[in-house]
C-alpha cells in the first residue's frame, strides 16, 4: 500500500513566516483600501513568495500493513475450578482462537494467570497491563477476559486503546454460603470472655428453602470437641469465647454444606487468638529470713505481670522474748484469707524454707493439696527444714510431693548437673548456654557450686537436675490437674551472687515458675507448627526417645505423613512444603494441633458468585461489555472505533490499520526558480495594470 501527503520544509522559522504573512496581508489590505486595481495580483504575488519560503513538497510512502493484535486473558485461578467453569473456560478459549484465526491480518496473544502470590487473589488487571506493555499499542485491536468477574486488583487496570470484553463463567442460578470474620481480638485474657464478630452470609440466587433462615455454626478450639450454635443467616453476630490456656488458640468456625451450594471451601473460618494472663498471682511464704529469700522476691517482682503476695515468718510462736504482741510492728499472717477464702485465686504458691510451726493448721495443708489436684501449682524450695521433724512433708502435702526426705542434710560444695532427662526437659534444656564458661574436658557446665543439698528418696516424677552422687536436686511432677516441684537446696542464690562464676539462676527459676503456671512454651510434651509462606515447620517436643512422624490432613482431606528428625535432645523437627493454603490438622497419635496456613478461606473463595460489578469501571469506558458463557459462545466482529463493541451473541474488536513504512520519496511541488519567476511576474503584472490606469 502507498500513502501521499504534503510536507513543508521552511527556509525560515515558522514565527518569521507568520510575521511575513501578516505584513503581506497588511499591504494587500492597504492596496485595497486605496483602490488600487492590482491589489489581487499583489495578493497572489505575496502568497507565491510566502509559499516559496515554506518549500512545500509531496511525500509518497511505501507502507507494509501490520496485523491487528487481540489479547486474550484467561483466568485460571482457584475460583475458576468450581464445577462447570473449567469446561466453560476451555470452550471459550477454543471459540475465540478460532474466530481470531478466521479474521484477516489478526493475531491472538493468550495470557493465563493463576492465584496471586501471598493470597492476593486474581490479578487479572496486572496480567492485562503486562501483556499490553509487551505489544505496540497502535496494533492492539481489543482485549478479551475470560473470568468469573472476581478480580482483586482493579487499581492496576490499564488505559486500553481498544474495547475490553469480558466472557463470564458461572451460572445464573449459582449460590453460596460462607462464614466471614468481621472482627476478632489478637489477644485474649485467659479465663475471661473474648467476643468475635462474624456473619454467616448467603450469596447469589439462594433457593427458597435456604433463604432467610438459620444455620448451625460449629465452634472448635485447637481441634478439640466442637460446640454447635444456631445463628441467623445474613446477620452480624457476636460469639463469646473463653480461652483456657496461654499461647496461640486456633478457633475454627464452620457451617454445614447446604444442598446445591457452589463450594464448601468458604464454609469455614479460622481465628488465631494469643491467650495471655491478665495478672499472675503468686503467694510466696518464707519460713524464715535467709539470703535466698531476696532472690525469689527479686525474680517475681521483676516481672510486671506478676502480683506477688510475700509473707516471711519473722517471729515464730516458739520465740519468747517478752515483747507484747500489741507493741510489735509486724503484719499478722492472714492465714484464713489466703489458704481458705482466696487460695484458688493464686496461680502459684511457693514455700521457701517453710516448716510446720503451728501457724498453719493441718486443714490448711489439705486445702493446698486439693488446690494442686484441681489445677494449682506448688513449688517447695527446701532447706534443712525439709529434713527435720517439722518438715511440711509430714502434712497432707505428702500425698502430692514428688520425693521424700531421708532426714539427712549434706553440707559441702557440689556442682549442680543436668540429668539425661534434664537435657530434654524444657525447664532445663540448654541451660549450659547460660553458663559463664563451659568446663573443659567434661560434660558438667561451668557453673558455680552450691553448698548444701537435702537428701531425697523415692522420687516420683521427673528428676531434671542432680547433685553429688546423682542425688535428686530438682524433681517435677504432675498431680491431678496441677503441678508440683521440689528443689532440694536453698543455695540457688549463690549463682546470683557470682559465687565461683555463678550460674543461670534467674533463667532456671523463671522457667520453673512459668512451667508450673502452665505456660505453653514450656510444655514437655507439645506439638508445634509454624507457618512461613507455604512452608510449615513442625516441632514435636517430647521426653521420650525414638523415631517420630506426624500425620497432616489438609483442607481438601488429603493425608500426608511427615517423618521428624531429632535435631536437639527432646526436639524432633521437619519442614514440609504445603500444597496450598487452608487449615491443616496435625497428629502424631498422642497430640493433635490445628494450624492455619494463610487464611482458612483463601481470597479466591471469599466471594465465588460470578459478577460484572468489579470489572465494570474498566470495561464501560472502552465501549466493551459482558457476555455470560452460559448463554452460548460469542461470535467475533470488527467494528469502527467509537462504536459499541458488544451485542447479543457477539463481541467486537476495532481494526487499527497499523503499518510500517518501507520507503519514502519526496518531490517538490514547484521548483524554487519557478516560484520566484511566478512571484516576479505577478508583481510586474500588478504594476503594469495600475500604471495604465
Q: Calculate the terminal CA-CA distance, rounded to whole Å.
A: 56 Å
The rough form would be described as: elongated
Helical/strand content category? alpha/beta
What is the name of the CATH superfamily of the largest domain? Class I glutamine amidotransferase (GATase) domain
CATH architecture of the largest domain: 3-Layer(aba) Sandwich
- Major sheet summary line: 8 strands, mixed
Spans of at least 5 consecutive residues whose pLDDT stays below 50 are: 438-444
The CATH topology of the largest domain corresponds to: Rossmann fold
Describe this structure as you would to a colleague.
- The chain folds into five domains: 95 residues; 134 residues; 100 residues, Immunoglobulin-like (Sandwich), CATH 2.60.40; 226 residues, Class I glutamine amidotransferase (GATase) domain (Rossmann fold), CATH 3.40.50.880; 72 residues, Immunoglobulin-like, CATH 2.60.40.10.
- The strands form eight sheets. Strands 16-15-17-18-24-23-22-20 form an eight-stranded mixed β-sheet. A seven-stranded antiparallel β-sheet has the order 25-26-29-28-27-30-31, with no helix packed on it.
- Helix 1 runs antiparallel to helix 2, helix 2 packs antiparallel against helix 11 and helix 6 packs parallel to helix 7.
- It is of the alpha/beta class and 693 residues long.
- The chain is 20% helix and 35% strand.
